[in-house]
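Q: I have 280 residues here and want to know how they pack in 3D. Can you give me a structure?
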Amino acid sequence: MKVIHTIKELQAELSALKAQGKMVGLVPTMGALHDGHASLVKRSVAENDVTVVSIFVNPTQFNDKNDLLKYPRTLEADCELLQSVGATIAFAPSVEEVYPEPDTRSFSYAPLDTVMEGAFRPGHFNGVCQVVSKLFDMVQPHRAYFGEKDFQQLAIIREMVRQMQFPLEIVGCPIVREADGLAMSSRNTRLSAEERKTALNISRVLFESQQFAKAHTLAETKAFVEEGIAAIEGLRLEYYEVVNDRTLQTVRSWDEAEGIVGCITVFCGDVRLIDNIRYK
């Protein structure tokens, strides 16, 4: 596996590979890699000849400077993991390489980006679209892989690709969980041992709500989740929304949409964790 830090070297390497007819997969990450990321890389390795994994903590998608500063950076360990799962290239550029000048582009995909994370983290998805569109331009992959844990992000990236007519396929990959159910996240490393135990209640309540929903209304199920989280000392619910899986708009009954997903954001201490569960 090659570790590349500049766009020029990346594109020279990829040009040679594409000239040989190689299919290229891209897995965009912010590093601090775990088995959830590994699952995306393995999927890309299985479906393409070349897999590029970007490792870049993107400053434009953080609306909280402390969150940006605290975000874990573990390049050496990341590269070891990527080597072990068969990645071809780890692309780890500097901020100056990605943003030689400020990116003033504005992306708007309402109503997808105005609800949930869009409402609570102003500017977040604009930053995501800035960096992902740049990566698509740099790599020009045939396929790009994103985890369904970031359910709203995946929907917005699909819409960006459609509107900007990027000639690539977006592949969504299932949430990867720890053995005890906690959704894998780079932020989990910031949890203390006690907080880690507390955080497990997020997925527990969501899984219980799946069963609860079979015999209860949507409103009752929403209350079940909200009350379940509120009952746990050390957890603070930011939002829990039950939405149409295509439009991301709130639904009020189970028969309103063919696909329905519950999206949740919870603070465990000062660590902000997201998860989601599918009801239908």
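Q: Anything worth noting?
A: The domain at 186-278 is CATH 3.30.1300.10 (Pantoate--beta-alanine Ligase; Chain: A,domain 2). The chain has two domains: 2-173, 186-278.
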